[in-house]
Amino acid sequence: MQTTHPSLEKDFSAQQQLLSNPSDRVALAALIDHTLLKMDAQESHLSLLLEEAYQNRFRAICVSGSALEFLQPKISALQAQGSGLQLCTVIGFPHGNNCTAGKVSEVAAALEQGAGEFDYVQNVSWVKDGHWGRLTGEAEKIVRAAQGKLVKVILETSLLSEEEIFHSAQAAAQGGVHVLKTSTGFGARGASQADMEILSHVQAEHEKKHGLRLGIKASGGIRSLTDALTMIQLGATRLGTSAGVILVNGLNAPHTGSY
């Protein structure tokens, strides 16, 4: 029997704290997945990402699979000291159209290297062809491979119609995915109000039907405190952004083209 993933309780708690007090920077930080997915990211950049995440008490760092070997010993040491910082990685990134077996293998390898959360990209081609059963089946296999760790599906909403967003989110939720995520940060746009309204509707329907709470991760284009608070008000329980430090300081970040 499925149950709501325990990590989501922390996310919902921080979300409610922030909604009741928008100036609560601690609650905001607890919703941020501090992200670095650029192709040219170096170890010095990864070290800075980790330091910023630890100092600001962000929820997680989100990095490519090749960065796990470098980061895992460092984040394990912080966790041993009581830090709740999570190590998240991406699967099938950024296109999502590699085979399911390949994605499952990525999850297994990342799990061995200490990943505690997985953001996988759905197969948008299957969405366009209406293969909802395939999408659900892939979700089930990825969730099973993650062995109880938190799984988020990246829908890449910039490529989808409203109907496609709705049905693909439903398909992933039926497959046991824990969090519905808008974007890779490499698409034509990031999260929008319309995206969030659709995902909130799927979230509400899923909880009513199955008694399970789903998280929502808004990502892509969140460059200011106003952006962040707007997404939280629209239902986000996580924010994927490379501008986390700037957000918790209430400033605006220059646009860099991704995350």
Tell me about this structure:
48% of the residues lie in helices and 14% in strands. The chain is of the alpha/beta class. It has an eight-stranded parallel beta barrel with strand order 1-2-3-4-5-6-7-8, surrounded by eight helices. Helix 5 (100-112) links the parallel strand 3 (86-91) and strand 4. The longest helix has 18 residues, at 193-210. The protein is globular, with a radius of gyration of 17 Å.
Task: Produce a short descriptive summary.
The protein is α/β, with parallel strands linked by helices and 259 residues long. 48% of the residues lie in helices and 14% in strands. The protein has a single domain, classed as Alpha-Beta Barrel (TIM Barrel).
Coarse shape: globular
The CATH superfamily bears the name: Aldolase class I
Specify the number of helices.
11
The biggest sheet, with number of strands, parallel, antiparallel or mixed sense and barrel status, is: 8 strands, parallel, barrel
Helix/strand order: HHEHEHEHEHHEHEHEHEH
Give the radius of gyration.
17 Å
What's the mean pLDDT score?
95
In CATH's first tier, which class applies?
Alpha Beta
Name of the CATH architecture: Alpha-Beta Barrel
Percent of residues in helices comes to: 40-55%
Beta-strand proportion: 5-15%
Q: Largest sheet, order of strands side by side?
A: 1-2-3-4-5-6-7-8
Q: Report low-confidence residues grouped into runs of 5 or more.
A: none
In whole angstroms, the N-to-C terminal distance is 36 Å
Please provide the count of β strands.
8
Q: How many domains in all? A: 1
CATH topology: TIM Barrel
Derived from helix and strand composition plus strand pairing, the structural class reads alpha/beta
